[in-house]
Design brief:
Shape of chain A: globular
Number of helices of chain A: 8
Oligomer: heterodimer
Structural class of chain B: alpha+beta
Largest sheet of chain B: 4 strands, antiparallel
Largest sheet of chain A: none
Structural class of chain A: mainly alpha
Helix content of chain B: 25-40%
Strand content of chain A: under 5%
Strand order of the largest sheet of chain B: 2-1-3-8
Radius of gyration of chain A: 18 Å
Largest interface: A-B, 17 and 19 residues
Order of helices and strands of chain B: EEHEEHHEEHEEHH
Number of strands of chain A: 0
Amino acid sequence: MNPELQQALSNYLLAMADDELILGHRNSEWCGHAPIIEEDIAFANIALDEIGHAIIWYELLADLQSEEREAFANRMVYFRDAADFRCAQMVELPKGDWAFTMLRQYLFDQFEMLRLEKLAVSNYAPIAEAATKILKEERYHLRHTKAWVRRLGLGTAESHRRMQTALNQLWPYGQQLFEIPPAILLDVSDLQMVFQEQVVPYLHEADLNVPTQFGPLPQSREAHTEYLPLLLNDLQQVARLDMAAKW
Amino acid sequence: MTDTQWPRYMVLHQAKEGAPHQHAGTVHAPDSEMALLNARDVFVRRPDCISLWVVRADAIFAKTQEELALNPGWLESISADGQPAEKYYFFAKLTQKAQFTYIGEIEAENPLHALKIGLQQYPDVKGLVWWVFPADAVLKSTPEDIEAMFAPAITKDFRDQTNFHTLSILRKLMHAKEEIHES
């Protein structure tokens, strides 16, 4: 593989892995606090799934860089500082209320579904295989979050208000998901258009309207919110107490 | 004060082709679709499911063997009254330890009628408790759901208690302590 291609692919895998890891960690914060016990179990499972997807992408990245898989994944998760992460800002934001969490997960799931469908036919076989595997779980995630978005959007005045507030806040951040590092391997240029064709009418059916005016969009994946270092402190502090410890 | 609990749904679970649906447990949900999704997450994290049904608990008509024995003439008093028949599912709890299990389908006019026909149709089934409920009240997963809802569990590692070292070490220590005590 030529160096330019390898670099582009590495960037792409890292961005995907970091998105999944940070969102998975955010979701795990609901463990023990979800609105009902059934949802607590369901959402903890989804959090675990997302972290599992992150590990799949980190391991492909390890292969690409001829590193040992587990050691590499551990290093990426526990021993990088915020500046070295390439996640979108949307997944860094604090978990907020249940409406915010469900809406963020819905936007991410729908985005991820469309991206995985493209990756599943990638010329790079390891990515195509991983995407095919992840796609199965992601279909279920999307069904779960779509069900919640619809019910909260059409529920009470209070649930609707919270959903619209969450949408107003999340929509601009959502645009950043598409600002993926340039990948030579596949064409994602129409991803944002297809995403909007799916999401806007679905939200509309749930009586939610995407904002047409919003402030400045998050810029590069190298820039992060103030929340990422705090999240990483939670995630990494135990591992960093003893870097040589075997777990 | 109003009851803020969501309704209860019974979850019926089929482990493999040819096996009967069996009662796996209960979930709360605002509607059947959410009940089915909750059922998947609560009861299908192990790779042994090909079909899930959910049915609202209050749609189930239940009778125990004792209730039937106390009032032997009661079943005879039930008769068809010419209403249109619909499909019912007939489940039984066969032992105290066993979960409710699927016995068969019945065409009947109402739950009482369904129970009567069920008992006549399956005279060899010795149930401790019987359930009948209309097929219409059930939301079922579809064969297309298997790939996304149930199949991913197959590739996951599951650990049982013995995989957790702290627990097994504690057990060994306690066991050793008892042995010292005894000797």
